[in-house]
Amino acid sequence: MSGVNNDKSDYLRRLSSVNDLIQAVYRSRKGGLKGIPRELVAEASRAVIQGIRQAILEARDELSLKEIKTSAEELAPMVEEEVEKRLSPSLRRVINATGVVVHTNLGRSLLADTAVEAVRNVASHYTNLEFEVDEGRRGSRQMHVRQLLCQLTGAESALVVNNNAAAVLLALTAHAQGKEVIVSRGELIEIGGSFRLPDIMAQSGARLVEVGTTNKTYVEDYRKAITENTVMILKAHTSNYRIVGFTAQASVEDLSALATEHGLILMEDLGSGTYVDLSEQGLPWEPTVESSLKGGADLVTFSGDKLLGGPQAGIVLGKAELVEKMARHPLARAVRIDKLSLAALEATLRIYLDPLAALERIPTLRMLTQDLQKLRERAENLATLIRKTAPTLLVEVVQDVSRAGGGSLPQADIPTWTVTLQSQNRGAEWLEERLRKYHIPIVTRVKNDRVIIDVRTLLEDESSIIAEALGKITSSVQGE
Ligand SMILES: *Cc1c(COP(=O)(O)O)cnc(C)c1O
C-alpha cells in the first residue's frame, strides 16, 4: 500500500506543469494553434492537468498508475482535444432513429426547406419586420402571418406568440384574471412536466373551477358551475394521453351553445393543432383547427412545432375583439415571437395554401404519412448497408410501431418497419450507448435486447451515416 503511495508522489512530481504543457501544445503543431486564444489553451491545459492529478490520486494499484501519462509531450494531444471540445457547439445535430416524429427532447419538428431558407434570409438581412414598406411607417410583426392564418382557417383574427404555453397564459391573463374559468377534470393536463394547466391558471390569476370526473364530464356539469364570476369555459385537448373506456366529454358544439347562452368565452387549447385531417391518411382522428373554430370555439390555441410542422410558436385564432385584447396586453410583449421563428412560421403556413403539397414538403407530415411499403424498402436498404459495414452484427428487418410523440396523436400505434441489431458478444445497451456517443449522436431504442432503428424518422443521408458508425463501432471491439 505504501508502495503505491510512494509511487503516487513520484507520479505527481513528474506531472508536467501547466506552463510546460502549454509550451508543448504550441510546439506540437506547426504554426501553433492558429486563431485559438491562448487563454483557452491555458484553461484546457489546467483542466487536463487537474484530471491527471485526480487519476493519480485515485489509482488503486501500480498497474493503473502505469497507464497514466505525465509528460507534457504525452499530454499535449489531450489538451488539443479539450480545446476542440470547448470550441465546438453544444447544440448540434443528432440522428433520430426512434421513430418518434415530434420528439420533444430532439427538437420536435424539422423545418421545410422554404422555411429554412426564410430563416436564413431574415437572419442575415435587415427586414420589414415591423415596417410597412408601402406606407413607409411602423407596422406590426403580426402582419406577416395574420391574414394568412385567417385565410387558411377561416378565423376572424390571429396572433402568434413564443409558444403555446405562452398563448394559453396570455389568453387567461388577458381575459380571466381574477375571474373563474371552468375546466373538466378529465382535461387538467400536464405536458412534459413543465406545462400544467392548473399552474398556468394560477400564474394568470384566473380561478380554476373543476367540473365532472376524470372520465366523464357532461354539459350539465359545466352549466351548474357557472356563477356571476365565470368568464370562460376552457377545453383542453388531452394531447398526450387518452381516457378510454367508460367516458363522456362535452363537445365543442354543446359547450359553444352554453357559452353563448351565458355570455362566456369558449376557449379550446388544441395543443398539437393539426391543419390537415390526418385521418384521411390513415392516422387517428385529431380535431383540426378548422373543426374547432367551426364548432364554435371563440379562441383556439396550438403549437407551431407539433403537427403543424413549423418552428416553436404559439398560435391564437378567434374572434377579433378577443384576439385584439390579448395583443394589447402588456404580457404580449414578454411572450412575443422572435423574427426567426416568425420567418419560419410564415413560410410553413404558405405551404399549407396547397394542403396536398404540405404532406410532401413539411417533414413532420411527410414522416407521419409515409407509405408502409416505402418504409419497408428503406429498412431493407439500411439492413443491406449495415450487413456490409458491420458483418458481425445480427441484422433483421422487422415490422413494429412508431409514435407521433410530442403530445400529438396520443397512444396511436403507427405501423412501421425497423432494422434490429444484435451484437454477438455485447449487450444491446452497450451498442445503444456507442451509437449515442458517436460524433453525430445516433439515438435508438432498445427492446428485447436488440437495438431498434426505426427508419420513419431518418433523413436521406442518415442510413449511410448509421452504417458507417456501426462499422467503426464493431471493428473497434474485434479481438477483444
Ligand atoms: C404541447 C401542449 C402545450 C404546450 O405547448 P408548447 O408549444 O410546448 O408551449 C399546451 N397545451 C397542450 C394541450 C399541448 O399539447
CA-based shape: globular
User: What share of the residues does DSSP label as strand, in percent?
Assistant: 15-25%
Give the class from helix and strand content and strand pairing. Answer: alpha/beta
The CATH architecture assignment of the largest domain turns out to be 3-Layer(aba) Sandwich
CATH superfamily of the largest domain, please?
A: Type I PLP-dependent aspartate aminotransferase-like (Major domain)
Rounded average pLDDT: 92
Please give the largest β-sheet.
7 strands, mixed
Note the topology.
Layout lengths: L1 H13 L3 H11 L9 H21 L3 H5 L5 H16 L7 E2 L16 H12 L6 E2 L4 E2 L7 H8 L3 E5 L2 H13 L3 E5 L5 E2 L3 E2 H8 L2 E5 L7 H7 L4 E7 L15 H11 L2 E7 L17 H6 L4 E5 L10 E5 L1 H9 L1 H5 L4 H13 L3 H7 L1 H6 L3 H18 L4 E9 L11 E9 L5 H9 L5 E2 L1 E3 L2 E5 L7 H15 L4
Parallel strand pairs: 1-15, 5-8, 5-9, 9-10, 10-11
Antiparallel strand pairs: 2-3, 4-12, 6-7, 11-12, 13-14, 14-17, 16-17
Helix pairs in contact: 2-3, 2-5, 3-5, 6-15, 8-9, 8-13, 18-20
This protein binds pyridoxal-5'-phosphate.
